[in-house]
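Glutathione-binding protein
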Amino acid sequence: MSEPNGAHGNAGATTDNTTNTTGAATATTDASLENRAKTPNRGPKWWLWAIIAVIVVAAIAVGVNIAKPKTDAQGGNPSTVETGGTAADTVTIGLKLAPTNLDIRNTSGSALDQVLIGNVYEGLVARDENNQVVPSIAKSWDESKDGLTYTFHLNENMTFSNGDKLTAEDVAWSINQLIKNQYHDADSLSMVKSVASDDDKNIVTITLNTANSNLLWTLTGRPGLVFDKDATYDAKTEAIGSGPYTVAKFVANDSITLKANPKYWGTHKAKTATVVVKYLADDNAAVNALKSGDVQVLAPITENLASPFTSDSAHYTVKAGDDTDKYVMAFNSKGKNTSDKRVRQAIRYAIDHDELIASRGGADKALGGPIPSLDPGYEDLTGLYPHDEAKAKALMKEAGYSTDKPLQLTLTYANIYGTELGDQLRSQLAKIGIDLKVNVVEFSTWLQDVYTNKDYDISLVDHNESHDFYQWADPTYYYNYDNKEVQQLYAQAIAATSDDQRDELLAKAAKLVSEDAPADWLFNYRVTTAWANGVSGFPVNLNQTLLPLYNVTYTK
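Structure:
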């Protein structure tokens, strides 16, 4: 999935347990890392829940926190040049990461989330283009003072695409089935004590064992999806949901045809009758498809391949959107040489992030810490370690190294990212007295050596999941980073009963992590999308994991 020059083609958003057509491993996020390595690391560990349980007692004194739903759920980002022609009844969209089947309960892969959530299946709540929780099947919700009880008030007169009524019982059944059968992402609801429904009052009540400030956001994904408890269908090739579209045709690793759902109950009625999603793993083929008109939208397009469209604004629009991908260059905190904080700090000062970003086309953003801009607790930390070769050399000298007596380190990463990043980093670090060996390996080798065995000096991988700060509060994670204050702050953030309190605690923890320099966050990858003028309503932000299509139109 990597480009010849190492530019990111959104390998980070891939989580299917498959390989792509070129044979490169497609998984890079934590959900897939765990599936492949068979070592569950997702979410707070038992020791963290113990801390949270203590904190919750103190949190009860905090006042009631009533969620105030935002206005529009999952709105698109209209930004195009209208042509004044007639509206097409079909829009064809080129995406990169193809699902192998449609079974969203059992199959990992953000490709499934991307095409099904918000289009075919709907959740109890949803996310908008700014990664904020908004209403969906629930029109509003209340939270108890202690953060242990959530009451969801559902919309009226909801139906599934087969005509069955969508009730509170369906909602509770769906979440309870997820927990009981341990469907995909069930572990993210490990704090749930019970899920109960009251069809007469049209409410669903979720009770927790311990307060969890991430619950609402978690329910915007697979854990909150609502299924028809009475429906019978083949979930691998069919889908029965309550969203604005139905799956009319599915061709594995090739395409999905979506048709407007005539029984759709909500405000997001599909504006285009048919949306065809074509999966184009080869970047050159994808570019040619947009040029020829076989597709009207391409998401993503590699920034370095976008120039023909950028320079032709009369016919095309090209725009980069925000996402949560973080290119994490981790230093083994227990490594022979990287356990020396001076070495880690020197590396951070030595890296010229502007140079790295420019070589990839310039769309990415500098990121100075573990939380990206769309996640809770974000603070601009790029000023902590600005590019400063003199400071880097001074720190290396303190540690006993120089250009005449270099420190030998190995950077290990998967071949899906190409070689250019490694070459650039080797060149930049050589200037401060680090002889960097770049070891580009198969993804399976990286999983075994780095992720599982933690046998590495420096590693590089794209962590694309949102709300994944827990990694830095887990001393058993492959970073080998163990900071008790960070763990305590994260536990307090999870147990917080207000978003402001949560965000403040996360920001404080993130700053501590960044100051410790257990990694360098090379950049926040931004997805570049290109479309033919006449297309409107296609979402730009987060479109590799969140792709509501109800608002998309194409005027020829």
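Residues 245-323+527-555 form a domain with the D-Maltodextrin-Binding Protein; domain 2 fold (CATH 3.40.190.10).
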